[in-house]
């Protein structure tokens, strides 16, 4: 509490207790599966098909399930997706260790390791060129992909204290490469020097007390020294060298070992460090000009990395590009690969939809352990749903055929049928006339895109189905669904993609796979609305942890959660004409908790809501009006 010590007016701000709850995103997808380019085993967030192409290379082949799924997810309205490339045993392409040698003492030693930044044979299409620059310790690196120049990095340094250090620049800027230093390189670094031009005939009488010299030693920043009074009344080369050495050593212990000598009518300034950062740079000035020190005055500066700068590969006019080799796509991931990734994905809280491109339920009914693992992940997080794909080439025209598949019955899963025919992006009548004109793509990515589009236009409580839920990008459906077919499929929780006259291809079903096992969560929008409310409240009341557990906290929780629920009610998310019919929020002693709960540090709030359920069956009863006599 503030102290009130003198008479007067005190103005104070007090908290209102209002802590608005912000709704979470509802349509962030995670696509987990095999493809042949991009980072492996890490979730990468992309916001568009263009971003996917930049990182993962687009659709690589007619069988690239991941690329096709990503394309049709974004085409149908998806806007955010974590892409997880899994590839068992994939190997990154690398530059052979006989291609980047140094100079001088390192003439037979590899000085830089370059490789593709992700595993896969795609890296075998990369080639690189290095060209030394005129100053002797910087170089240019050029990258080609499939013969086209795609990246150029100028002014690179092998000095780890330099802003243009090659490892830092490549890591932060290259879309294709990684860089590393080979073992044993330390022995090739040397002490840097700055050697003046020939001082024969210099009028040493012009060098007097008080003249200044500015140097940057070992990249530690520019420092200025001043010459003191010369012994014996005047300076000569030996005395100037001794004075420069003395004044530099007085600057800081960082320069211990620095020397300056005079021999052969030249001054030689030598760093005390034999390292990558070793450098002696003399800035232009009156004394530097008189002593011919620094490049501007005709002097020569050699950096500690001089011998480890890569030798030029060819010339600037005729560069030689060396290819990266030994890249390998690896094989399809197994259950262990998926389980390892799901452990990482559990920490990414904003995912709402999980897709498994390339994985589907087998016809045999033996189940798919990878689908089971993904479903267990969704149930454990309780914040995301799995879209399961049926087997391709399997017509589900009877309820018994659906039962034979052994589908899961989780409230966190949904299935769409049939597979979708799309135009083959690799068909070319002239160059590839034997390729099929269409491909079949699993329906889950189309459905996920429709979910995202519907969330954005109507809200997560609107069923992502109906004449508004058009399916984009299809050339046809693997099987045609008629009313009689859907009579068999709808009760089994199979959502159909159908072509309707005047409306085109649409999603015509909105059930979860728990239709019979747990009818309370029969509908996709009911389950997803519950996830939305749970996740939003979870994020929005973290402030309550460790607050005093009394009526003020309970009242604040009721007010803040109630305001959030009232906003959803006004947006049309619940049943009921009045808010009291649509939702309730309870929190208080004797209502939701006992004194024993409070003593255990628990505050308990109960939130209830009346979910909107889709008008799945619109029934119009018509009768004749009997004429009155």
Explain the overall architecture.
A hairpin with a 5-residue loop joins strand 5 and strand 6. Helix 2 runs parallel beside helix 9. The longest helix is centred in the C-terminal third of the chain and has 20 residues, at 551-570. 23% of the residues lie in helices and 20% in strands. It has an 8-stranded mixed sheet with strand order 2-3-1-17-18-19-23-24, sandwiched between helices. A 4-stranded antiparallel sheet has the order 7-6-5-16, with helices on one face. Strands 12-13-9-15 form a 4-stranded antiparallel sheet. The protein has helices at residues 49-56, 65-75, 166-173, 237-251, 286-290, 335-345, 369-381, 399-404, 444-457, 483-489, 524-540, 551-570, 579-582, 595-599, and strands at residues 29-33, 44-46, 81-85, 113-116, 126-132, 138-145, 148-157, 177-180, 191-195, 212-217, 222-226, 259-263, 266-274, 280-282, 300-302, 322-323, 353-355, 385-388, 413-417, 420-423, 438-441, 476-477, 494-500, 504-508, 583-586, 606-609. The protein starts with 28 loop residues before the first strand and ends in a 20-residue tail after the last strand. With 629 residues, it is of the alpha+beta class. The protein has 4 domains: 29-88 and 332-526, Rossmann fold; 104-188 and 309-323, Immunoglobulin-like (Sandwich), CATH 2.60.40.4290; 197-297, Immunoglobulin-like (Sandwich), CATH 2.60.40; 546-629, no CATH class.
Q: Which class of the largest domain in CATH terms?
A: Alpha Beta
Spatially, the strands of the biggest sheet line up as: 2-3-1-17-18-19-23-24
Helical element count?
14
CATH topology grouping of the largest domain: Rossmann fold
């Amino acid at each position: 509490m503030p102290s009130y010590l003198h008479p007067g007016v005190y103005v104070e701000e007090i908290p209102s207790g209002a802590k608005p709850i912000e709704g979470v995103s509802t349509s962030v997808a995670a696509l987990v599966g095999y493809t042949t380019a991009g980072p492996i085993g890490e979730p990468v967030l992309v916001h568009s098909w263009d971003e996917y192409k930049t990182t993962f290379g687009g659709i690589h082949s007619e069988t690239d399930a991941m690329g096709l799924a990503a394309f049709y997810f974004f085409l149908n309205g998806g806007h955010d997706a974590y892409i997880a490339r899994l590839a068992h045993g994939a190997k990154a392409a690398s530059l052979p260790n006989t291609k980047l040698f140094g100079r001088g003492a390192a003439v037979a030693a590899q000085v830089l390791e370059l490789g593709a930044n992700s595993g896969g044979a795609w890296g075998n299409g990369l080639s690189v060129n290095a060209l030394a620059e005129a100053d002797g310790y910087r170089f240019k690196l050029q990258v080609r992909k499939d013969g086209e120049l795609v990246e150029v990095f100028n002014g690179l340094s092998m000095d780890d204290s330099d802003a243009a250090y090659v490892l830092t620049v490549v890591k932060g800027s290259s879309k294709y490469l990684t860089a590393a230093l080979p073992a044993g390189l330390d022995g090739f670094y040397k002490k840097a020097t700055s050697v003046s031009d020939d001082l024969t005939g210099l009028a040493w009488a012009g060098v007097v007390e008080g003249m200044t010299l500015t140097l940057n030693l070992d990249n530690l920043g520019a420092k200025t020294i001043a010459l003191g009074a010369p012994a014996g009344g005047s300076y000569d080369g030996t005395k100037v060298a001794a004075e420069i050495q003395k004044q530099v050593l007085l600057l800081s212990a960082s320069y211990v070992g620095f020397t300056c000598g005079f021999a052969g009518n030249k001054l030689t300034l030598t760093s005390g460090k034999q390292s990558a950062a070793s450098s002696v740079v003399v800035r232009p000035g009156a004394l530097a000009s008189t002593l011919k020190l620094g490049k501007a005055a005709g002097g020569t500066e050699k950096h500690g990395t001089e011998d480890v700068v890569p030798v030029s590969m060819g010339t600037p006019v005729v560069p030689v590009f060396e290819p990266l080799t030994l890249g390998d796509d690896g094989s399809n991931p197994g259950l262990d690969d998926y389980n390892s990734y799901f452990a990482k994905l559990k920490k990414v809280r904003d995912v709402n939809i999980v897709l498994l491109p390339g994985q589907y339920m087998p016809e045999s009914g033996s189940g798919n352990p990878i689908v089971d693992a993904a479903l267990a992940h969704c149930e454990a997080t309780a914040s995301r749903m799995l879209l399961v794909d049926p087997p391709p080439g399997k017509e589900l025209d009877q309820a018994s055929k659906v039962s034979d598949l052994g589908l899961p019955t989780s409230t966190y899963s949904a299935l769409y049928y049939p597979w979708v025919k799309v135009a083959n992006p690799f068909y070319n009548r002239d160059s590839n006339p034997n390729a099929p004109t269409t491909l079949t793509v699993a329906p889950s990515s189309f459905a996920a895109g429709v979910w995202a589009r519907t969330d954005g236009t109507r809200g997560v409580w609107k069923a992502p189905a109906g004449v508004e839920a058009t399916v984009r990008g299809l050339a046809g459906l693997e099987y045609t669904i008629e009313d009689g077919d859907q009579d068999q499929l709808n009760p089994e929780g199979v959502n159909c993609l159908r072509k309707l006259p005047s409306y085109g291809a649409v999603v015509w079903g909105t059930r979860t796979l728990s239709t019979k096992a747990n009818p309370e969560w029969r509908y996709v929008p009911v389950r997803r609305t519950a996830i939305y409310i749970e996740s939003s409240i979870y994020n929005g009341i973290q402030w309550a942890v460790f607050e005093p557990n009394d009526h003020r906290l309970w009242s604040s929780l009721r007010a803040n959660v109630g305001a959030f629920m009232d906003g959803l009610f006004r947006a049309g998310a619940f049943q009921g004409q009045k808010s009291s019919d649509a939702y309730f929020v309870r929190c208080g002693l004797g209502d939701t908790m006992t004194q024993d709960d409070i003593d255990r540090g628990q505050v308990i709030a109960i939130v209830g809501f009346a979910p909107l359920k889709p008008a799945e069956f619109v029934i119009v009863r018509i009768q004749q009006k009997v004429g009155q006599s």
